[in-house]
Automatic annotation (TrEMBL):
It holds the Pfam family Hemerythrin. It comes from the Bacteria. Residues 36-170 form the Hemerythrin-like domain. This is Hemerythrin-like domain-containing protein. Gene3D superfamilies: nmb1532 protein domain like (1.20.120.520). InterPro entries: Hemerythrin-like (IPR012312). Residues 1-10 have a biased composition (Polar residues). It comes from Jannaschia pagri. Residues 1-26 are annotated as: Disordered.
Length: 180
């Protein structure tokens, strides 16, 4: 689990047979099912979309793309990112985090940190969303959008890694059916 630049794996959940397993092997476990696969695919979508927006913003800064061209779609895709990420956090906070705490009460402190991350990321998403509304004004807005996207990415990438390393071992231990 990664917080504040440290890396300490969640300490109290251990798989019964062979101890902790690497993220690369998660999908090979019998308890890894459609719900977990879908949840991780949402995380990958966020990683891909943030990376793609970062590339488009760099192309705008280099003069290779026009930020006001509808095909560049910074406003459209940036707003999509903000809305989807806020919705994702909302479902985790209201549905899955409470269920995980009931299933594994000892992870409550880690879940509270993840919930706190959501609040911090939400503030960064608000600032990104505000800057996106200026993109149609042209190149001057690009640097602002770029810096605010960077702020979101730094928080969100660290958060997703911590979240996956906290939640997936619990799912692989207890089975995802208990989360439904
Ligand atoms: Fe989250
Ligand atoms: Fe998440």
């Amino acid at each position: 689990m990664v917080h504040n630049g440290t890396n300490s794996r969640f300490p109290s959940v251990r798989l019964p047979d062979d101890g902790p397993i690497s993220p690369e092997a998660w999908s090979q476990r019998p308890a890894f099912g459609d719900l977990t696969r879908f949840w991780l695919s949402r995380h990958q979508m966020f990683r891909d979309l943030m990376s793609d927006l970062r590339a488009r913003l760099r192309a705008c800064e280099g003069g290779d793309l026009d930020p006001t061209d509808p095909d560049t779609a910074l406003h459209r895709d940036g707003r999509f990112l903000c809305q989807e990420m806020l919705g994702h956090h909302g479902v985790e906070d209201s549905v899955y985090f409470p269920r995980l705490i009931v299933l594994q009460p000892s992870i409550a402190p880690w879940i509270e940190r993840l919930h706190s991350d959501h609040q911090d990321i939400g503030c960064s998403l608000d600032r990104l969303s505000q800057s996106l509304s200026q993109v149609r004004d042209g190149a001057r807005a690009v640097a602002l959008v770029s810096s605010r996207l960077t702020a979101v990415m730094e928080l969100k990438l660290r958060h997703m890694q911590a979240e996956e390393e906290t939640v997936v071992p619990v799912i692989l231990t207890l089975g995802e059916d208990q989360l439904r």
